[in-house]
Amino acid sequence: MMCYGGKDLARSYRTVRGNTLKIVEEIPESKLDFVAAPGTRSIRQLLTHIALTDSFSGVHKEKRTSFEGINFPQLIGQMQAEEQMPRTKSELIALLTQRGEETASWIEGLSDDFLAEPFNQPPGMAPATKTRFEMIMSMKEHEMHHRAQLMLMQRMIGQVPHLTRAMQERFAAAAAQQRT
Questions:
Q1: How far apart are CA 13 and CA 7, in angstroms?
Q2: pLDDT tens digits, residue range 72-86?
Q3: From CA 157, how far away is CA 148, in angstroms rounded?
């Protein structure tokens, strides 16, 4: 039996998505097309990318045991086309909320046995197999990677990210308590 199973993973996935949603709520609509450097995604494109990365969970929903038969260039091309679609801030929030909850609800119902199943990686990849748990966990890690980019972009547009503000408030409260 796994110590950390589907319910735990779903809870942490919801936390990650909630923090992503807080960021998009704080960024003004006028800044959604901000690009940190030429050739990189805008904030709007990055948020769309985050919302759609759960598309890769399809291999597990279909109970595949490998990526065999998956046309990655086509899948990536579709995702990139979606990222180019103009979405308003409220549409981004709705997309992130809906897809996030659908994914978390699906994860929540996964059994330990399913999460422990091996999944074969493409030839030449190391390790040659990963558990479904590891692969599903990587969806959350992927979002956290992009959320860090969003937090840097917030700094670049003059905002202090909410997680940083919360940490600063905790430190200030602890310092104040030590002074009394």
A1: 10
A2: 889 889 999 999 999
A3: 14
Torsion over CA: 77, 82, 86, 88 (sign): negative
Q: What pLDDT score was predicted for residue 55? A: 85
CATH for 6-179, among 1.10.3710.10, 1.10.540.10, 1.20.120.450, 3.30.70.100? Answer: 1.20.120.450
DSSP state of 180: -
- pLDDT tens digits for range 23-32: 999 999 999 9
The closest of 149, 141, 160, 142 to 35, measured between CA atoms, is 149
Contacts with 131 (C-beta within 8 Å, 6 or more apart), sequence order: 115, 116, 117, 118, 119
How much is the average pLDDT of 65-69? Answer: 89
